[in-house]
Write a structure and sequence with these properties.
Elements (H helix, E strand, L loop, with lengths): L1 H22 L5 H17 L20 H9 L14 H34 L1 E5 L2 E5 L7 E3 L2 E4 L7 H16 L2 H14 L4 H20 L5 H12 L9 E2 L5 H8 L5 H4 L5 H11 L11 E3 L2 E4 L2 E6 L4 E6 L6 E6 L4 E5 L2 E2 L1 E2 L1 E2 L5 E2 L4 E2 L6 H10 L2 H4 L5 E12 L5 E11 L14 H16 L8 E2 L2 E2 L2 E2 L9 E4 L2 E4 L1
Helix pairs in contact: 1-2, 2-7, 4-6, 5-7, 6-7, 8-9
């Protein structure tokens, strides 16, 4: 979320700077409106877009010894005793402050809406074509909302002045300016903490007035004088278009402003702007996809994962190639047990293969290891063609799915020759370019995993780790194709 807000703000700031330098004083108002709305939406959605393959930065190095492969095949995900969920105080306070600001912004929005509703109910209403003119009896500048024009009293205006008001407000209606206002009001509520939102709203409101002013069929002198008269009146609610909201001097100057053909060529600046934003501010352009480890916690893509260290134990194994018994010290890699302070649940199995059910845990519809493995192998055909005839193992583990069914963490340690049946393979290596090809493709596939529901505990979404026994099974490749898996 933090990186999203940084990228979004960067796009908005860059777009506003270009607007103020190149377009703000020009008279192509329709283009300026499209530019402001377009760059605002660009900043809102482009940081969510991912246009290139992810790289994978595993924390632990690849180790493909015979002992590790055998141990990995025998290691079983142990049951993790649920602990009380702890929420970091700083995150809690930030969330509380955000919610407080959200509520205040929403209350201010309701206040403006209630003001308009009250003026509508208490005012005298008359029809004028498609417009309803409402005389409020209160001193304020004329303003419009939807198909309603609010004025203090018709007696305060001559027939020509009233026609100027209706013409001006009619343009607001035909151009659907009210949709822009509601969009910016929603943005003010959700992003109340971002000052760029208020700058966007201000610039857009001014462009609206420029567009409406240009449609009034009066001389600049006559219309300018009327604008000055309205400037001394009380302003209108923020949810409406008001005569005196924008700087009057700039509006009068804009009435006689004509942009040259040379100035219109500046419109092309929008194209390199989009390209720069695409290259620099998409989801993974500036996103830090490396895993940062501090103590037993790993930060990855905005989430914090807490890992559990497993005790060392010793057991006897038989080397399948020699029949010799060996004492092996097993040191399992740390396993993630919490995500952002919340318990990570998983399929739990005993060493004998029996299943341990967790009361209240519902995994129906959740992606399982078997289907995920099949999904990956079905989509790795181009990469498999780079492998020689042999047996291989994909080292993929700690696959965590959030409550929405999206994979948010995994450890990938590359692809190696399967050593369990033939220890001599330990001396063989796979070309680094092939490893890179596999890692990029697997990263992309995991980021676009088929939709699933996510796990629930007593009806509430919880993080879930896929039991990765399936990924310890080897695949056999012949002539660039998987012949057994």
């Amino acid at each position: 979320m933090q990186q999203y807000l940084i990228n979004t703000s960067a796009i908005w700031l860059l777009s506003l700077i270009i607007f103020d330098v190149c377009f703000r004083r020009e008279s192509y108002h329709s283009y300026n409106r499209v530019y402001l709305l377009g760059t605002f939406l660009l900043g809102l959605f482009l940081p969510l877009y991912q246009w290139q393959d992810d790289s994978v930065s595993p924390i632990t190095a690849i180790n493909t010894s015979v002992e590790k492969i055998i141990i990995t095949k025998q290691s079983i995900t142990e049951t993790i005793t649920p602990e009380t969920t702890s929420v970091q105080p700083s995150i809690n306070w930030i969330f509380m402050v955000y919610i407080l600001g959200l509520l205040i912004s929403f209350v201010l929005f309701l206040k403006e809406l209630i003001t308009i509703i009250r003026l509508y109910k208490k005012g005298d209403k008359t029809k004028d074509g498609v417009w309803t003119v409402i005389e409020t009896g209160k001193p304020h500048s004329p303003f419009s909302a939807f198909r309603y024009v609010f004025i203090s009293d018709k007696k305060d205006y001559s027939a020509d002045e009233l026609q100027m008001i209706l013409t001006h407000e009619e343009l607001h209606g035909h151009a659907l300016h009210f949709i822009d206002l509601m969009l910016m009001q929603a943005a003010r509520i959700i992003f109340w903490f971002n000052p760029l939102i208020y700058i966007y709203a201000n610039r857009l409101a001014i462009v609206h007035e420029y567009q409406a002013d240009a449609m009034v069929d009066k001389s600049p002198k006559e219309y300018g004088s009327f604008l000055i008269e309205q400037a001394i009146l009380k302003s209108a609610p923020a949810l409406s278009h008001s005569f005196n909201r924008s700087p009057i001097k700039k509006r009068i100057l804009m009435l006689t402003k004509n942009s040259t053909a040379l100035s219109k060529s500046k419109m092309l600046i929008a194209l390199p702007l989009v390209l720069v934003c695409l290259l620099c501010f998409t989801k993974n352009a500036f996103s830090d996809d490396t895993k940062k480890k501090v103590g037993n916690k790993v930060t990855y893509r905005g989430n914090v994962f807490e890992f559990k260290e497993w005790p060392v134990d010793t057991f006897t194994i038989v080397d399948p190639s020699t029949g010799e018994e060996k004492k092996v010290i097993r040191k399992r890699e740390p396993s993630p047990i919490k995500m952002n302070g919340k318990e990570i649940y998983t399929d739990n199995y005993r060493d004998d293969g029996s299943y341990i059910a967790i009361p209240g845990l519902n995994t129906i519809g959740v992606l399982n290891a078997s289907s995920l493995r099949q999904y990956l192998l079905d989509n790795l055909k181009d990469e498999v063609q780079q492998l020689s005839n042999d047996e291989y193992e994909i080292h993929l583990s700690n696959i965590i799915i959030d409550g929405k069914g999206k994979i948010v963490y995994y450890d990938y340690d590359g692809i190696s020759f399967q050593e369990y049946a033939n220890p001599k393979r330990a001396q063989k290596t796979i070309d680094s370019s092939v490893q890179v090809s596999f890692s990029k493709r697997i990263a992309r596939l995991l980021n676009n995993v088929p939709s699933n529901t996510g796990a629930k505990l007593n009806g509430k979404p919880v993080p879930f780790m896929i039991h990765n026994t399936e990924f310890r099974n080897s695949i056999k490749v012949e002539n660039g194709k998987i012949v057994s898996q």
